[in-house]
Amino acid sequence: MDPRVRKLAHLLVHYSLKLKKGQLVILKGEVVTLPLLTAAFEEALKVGAHPWLELLSSDVDEIFLKHGSAEQLAYLPPMTRVEYDKMDAYLFAWGSQNLSHLSGVDPKKQAAVRRAKKPYMMKFFKRTALGEVHWVGTQFPTQADAQKAEMSLSDYEDFVYRAGHIHVGDPVKHWKKVEAEQKRLVRILQRIDHLHVRSGGADLKLQVKGRKWISCHGTENFPDGEIFTCPLEDSVEGFVNFTYPAHYDGRGVEGVRLEFKNGRVVAEHADKNQAFLKTMLDVDKGGRRIGEFAIGTNYEITRSTGNTLFDEKIGGSFHMAVGASILEAGGKNQSAIHWDMVCDLKKDGEIIADGKVIYRKGRFVV
After folding, report:
1. How far apart are CA 46 and CA 66, in angstroms?
2. Boundaries of domain holding 119
3. Is residue 116 part of a domain?
4. Is residue 260 part of a domain?
5. Residue 272 in contact with residue 255, Cβ under 8 Å?
6. Residue-wise pLDDT tens digits, 290-313
């Protein structure tokens, strides 16, 4: 096993999850991510926790969505309900054998499954906001993900582990430094009322007064590097052309443009997979509102790899999520989706806060 896998597993269990003796933790991912899940399982046992391994299959997902009846798509087994009620911690290993495994599925069926899971998704968000459950999700390098990034597997492995600073002697020391700097910025952002994002691809206004800004420094997503909040639900105005492909539920949507009025998406366009974009936005009443606004701060990530986990952290970018708000940031929008889309600001972007430029060409200037 690559020693970086064991090092990552140790970091996720001890630093990200802060797993404790007696806690119930679920380790979830596709079969191809088993090396990381195995290492994390062993690390959880050493802590004295009770790990539960759940292996997923992209083939099974495809079969379910293609052949499941409306009743079957809407059904959630009792075990799932117990999981959302009882688990203390989750570790998600993201990585796939085939990133396009759902490209032939009817988007309406995917939306139906999302709607069925919505009550449990909201319960998860609520328990997270209350501190009752902790979670972390990370990327395990696979051939499919490497191919999507247009890299060899070895180069992609280096990219993934460098983005998380796993290659250094003490990665936790790095992430604590990130935490200190981002919390300094959070203290400044917390005083802001209105934001105006301007670039060649965006002209967007939003209000954030009364909402909480949160620093992300490796305790949930890993690798990390972002600062986020939830805008007031009816405040977003303007447009944004997202720079990178937006991936969700096994599909990629390219050339996305969204226009907003009174906080709601009133017009949408995609160069590729327009029908899927529209179906997801129309999944429920909250699908066309913004649940998150965030600024990427990981300057180790310098390019898009077609993977939202990394793309949304690109230093010099911002991203927005249509759909469900993050409750601990004070957001109120509820939806069955939470779909992040990323816009680059390094070339000509700036963020103006209450009339003052605080961010220019991909860097904070405060």
Report:
1. 41
2. 3-163
3. yes
4. yes
5. yes
6. 999 999 999 999 889 988 889 999
CB 342 within 8 A of CB 242: yes
Q: What is the pLDDT of residues 214-232, one digit of tens each?
A: 999 998 889 999 999 999 9
Tell me if 178 is assigned to some domain.
no
Specify whether 31 is located in the same domain as 153.
yes
Q: How far apart, in whole angstroms, are the C-alpha atoms of residue 223 and residue 4?
A: 14
The answer to whether residues 237 and 205 touch, using CB atoms and an 8 Å cutoff, is yes
**Which contiguous run of DSSP H or E holds residue 320?**
strand 317-323
Return the closest-CA partner of residue 145 out of 50, 55, 250, 271.
250
The per-residue pLDDT for range 123-144, each reduced to its tens digit, is 888 888 888 889 999 999 999 9
pLDDT class for 46, splitting at 50, 70, 90?
A: very high
What CATH code is carried by the domain that includes residue 151? 3.40.1830.10
The one-letter amino acid code at 107 reads: P
Total domain count, the chain: 2
Report the mean per-residue pLDDT for the chain. 93
